[in-house]
Design a protein that fits this description.
205 residues; alpha+beta; eight-stranded antiparallel barrel; 8 strands; 21% helix
């Protein structure tokens, strides 16, 4: 599964407008489209659209339709990990987006994967109100971690749980510098059929 991320509100569109990357009338018939989520930042003008695709080719073909809008900064990522929380059957209201900017070396990506699967996910997976987590990886090994929740309080609880964990044997803190930036968003649109939400369920263990 692949994801395309775009920030339509930074180009004059309304914050709740999915834009070219959102699930609107121009995109619902696109081959390989699995679903979409739109976000609006809590304390800022940023809007984000996330579309999910069956293959990288599907995502690239969709993004290519808007090549004439050269100012639109869109990126394609592979969904390398995902996990469903206790509230997975519900539509989330809030989200945390953590950006780990590339380029990153393979050792950093491997360290992040290990931390996510063996230390961070076990610490948060049973939190009430957690809808799920998606880990997206770019070609330059940069990544975006998206945490979906029913409330801002759940996001805060997840952050506290992660901060309370201790490094596992063999983890190198030099390879885990943390995110380059963090955004908290309202979820303004959630079009994700259950079959898509479960597509990678169990990847995080």
């Amino acid at each position: 599964m692949y994801a395309h991320i775009d920030r339509p509100s930074s180009h004059g569109q309304a914050e709740d407008d999915p834009g070219p990357a959102g699930l609107n009338s121009s995109s619902t018939g696109q081959p390989g489209l699995l679903g979409a989520i739109t976000f609006r930042q809590f304390a800022g003008p940023a809007g984000v659209s996330l579309t999910l695709w069956d293959t990288e080719a599907d995502a690239a073909a969709f993004a290519g339709q808007y090549a004439e809008l050269a100012a639109l900064p869109g990126e394609i990522y592979q969904v390398v990990d995902a996990g469903a929380g206790p509230a997975a059957a519900q539509a989330p209201a809030h989200a945390r987006l953590m950006y780990f900017d590339g380029p990153r070396v393979p050792e950093q990506a491997a360290a992040e994967d290990l931390a996510g699967r063996q230390r961070i996910w076990p610490a948060i997976r049973h939190l009430s109100g957690l809808v799920g987590v998606y880990v997206l990886r770019g070609r330059d090994l940069g990544s975006v971690v998206i945490t979906l929740a029913m409330s801002a309080e759940t996001l805060d609880a997840a952050a506290r749980a992660v901060m309370s964990t201790e490094l596992l044997p063999g983890e190198d803190p030099a390879l885990l510098p943390g995110p380059d930036r963090i955004e908290i968003h309202h979820v303004t649109g959630y079009h994700l059929p259950a079959v898509v939400a479960a597509k990678h369920e169990g990847t995080l263990t």
